[in-house]
Predict the structure of YheC/YheD family protein.
Amino acid sequence: MSLQTLGVIAVYINNNKIEELDFFRKLSVYSGKEGLQIALFTPQDVDDHKSEIRALFYDKTLKKWVRKRTPIPTLIYDRCRYHGKATYQMLSKFRRTHPNLNYIAKPLANKWSIHNVLSGHARIASSIPETHPYSSALLEKMLKKYRSIYLKPRNGTGGRGIIRVSYLEDGTYQIQGRYKNRQIFNAERVQLKQLPSKLRKHYVNDQYIMQQGIASLLVNGRVCDFRLLIQKNGEGKWDVTGCAGRIGPTRSITSNLHGGGKAITIGSLLQQKFTKSQMSTIKENMYDLSTIIANALEDHYGSLCELGIDLAVDPHGDVWLLEVNPKPSREVFKRIGEQNTYLTAITRPLEYASWLLKKEQER
Ligand SMILES: Nc1ncnc2c1ncn2[C@@H]1O[C@H](COP(=O)(O)OP(=O)(O)O)[C@@H](O)[C@H]1O
Ligand SMILES: [Mg+2]
């Protein structure tokens, strides 16, 4: 049986290392079952004159990556994350030069644009915390309405540059958060009047959004939220692969795993606050909301294959959308020991790609 090729485009990070190489190895190992082979390449490996790439293929017998020239595959799984302007420009150029390839994953826009798309949908809007572009005057108004406000860079990821302003009982405000390099900075207590200048010192500008903080604190004061993975399955339909809880480290206002967050099963996290029947309603709401979000984003941005959705649950058990990630990692399921979910998270893009290729051939 001849294998069809799924191209995986990725980027080099430091020391010429390809990001997520271990994931790509696993994709390659499981691809044969779906009648596929993985051709891994970066924008630097493209030879436009010959419409060829110098791709890496994983050799299961030799247990190593082998480089071979191959035509540019027609189906592409884009796993490039933002690592600075240079790689971003190379990737954009590749997309511009090859607009007719079938990209199963797409870079979505920034947090504010995604917010605007989703807030136009009645069933989603009520689950989105109030969000605006940052302005110091509006921040003051929002702080009258909510106890805490999250400030996030529009293009940020992994908890970088996120700041929380909270109202304290004595009438002052606390600023907490992380620098752009993700390090936690020391909390500061300031007067309302001092807020704009203090925030400017933390590089908060019009490239930030501000968002109603969702009170999703654990008893011991740590922040927690949930990461849900929704993927297209082998029938081309959206299906929730799994959902896990994340608990931030002490002093942290974010729960991201790369910022020291701990992964925990959804059940263990929810049972700390909710009854069994509340838990199943919350889970159902999470799954429903995520499916509606996936369809709404697809209507706007064109077809997608997977999304990582950050959700918070407030003390009433209401589910809130914090963020949508178009290039989600699947490590959280490995960390909580859900091996089957982890495996499904790896194999679903292969099943979906194989379904797409079959559909194309039938045409
Ligand atoms: N509005 C909010 N209310 C409560 N917690 C939030 C809010 N926004 C973000 N967080 C916390 O900060 C983390 C990072 O925020 P997120 O919007 O997902 O940005 P990033 O792209 O950096 O992951 C979330 O996982 C959550 O722990
Ligand atoms: Mg996030």
Q: What stands out?
A: The domain at 111-126+217-355 is CATH 3.30.470.20 (D-amino Acid Aminotransferase; Chain A, domain 1). The pocket of magnesium ion (ligand 2) is lined by residues 256, 310, 323 (CB under 6 Å). The longest helix spans residues 276-301.
